[in-house]
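hey m, so remember when u said the tokens were messed up on ur end? i reran from scratch. heres the input so u can diff it against urs
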Amino acid sequence: MKHLALLITLGLSLCAEDILETIDRNLTPVSAQMYKKLINIEPDGSKKEFLLFQAKKDKDKMISLFLSPDSDKGRATLRLGENMWLYIPNVGRPIRITSMQSVVGGVFNNADIMRLDFTTEYDLQKQTENEEGLLLELKAKNETVSYDRLLMQVNKKTMTPSSIECYTSTNMLIKTLFYKELKDFGDKIIRPSVVETVSPMYKGYKSLMIYGKITPKDFPDEAFTLDNLSKASELRR
């Protein structure tokens, strides 16, 4: 990954797939477990926090397990490509949810919380250099992707995003994601530990996603099924 970043710094061209793949792998291993805190901040300053454990496998599978608050503890979400489900213990069966909904409220939607690799959902259409690094224009591979177009500002030294503007097909800005506070998570994972988002559609509101741990780990395919979603807590062992 550092080699690719060096090539870009030297002005040598890379194929679009290599650039996005580099960014994906710098943000998250192909398969990994993560702990993150979500914080929703309202205009009056009040906050609501959630603690999640996440298991990611390959480029299109993710499970999120709620560890707190107590009111949400035991809930789990499953993402397979663009298909998503929510499991609530006292309901007993998974419920279909959409990418643009949010199981936690706030500015982050379900696709933000359970983000797939950029190479899975987007094609790189254009790249330009500016004072901040690289500016990438990404186009959704199909209409099921949450955002039709992304403008991603990339730090050339770390090859990770510093900000991402998310647009609809009619070029309306939905939200902006800011990647902050670079952190060494070990296992050669050095990436922003905080993602902050604001939206013109939610004036005065702000949401934060804070990564506590990211560890490479492989999981069995059968863990990412509706039948096993109720057993998501076993993935932490």
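this time it looks ok to me. Confidence is low (pLDDT under 50) at residues 1-12. if urs says something different then somethings off w ur setup not the seq
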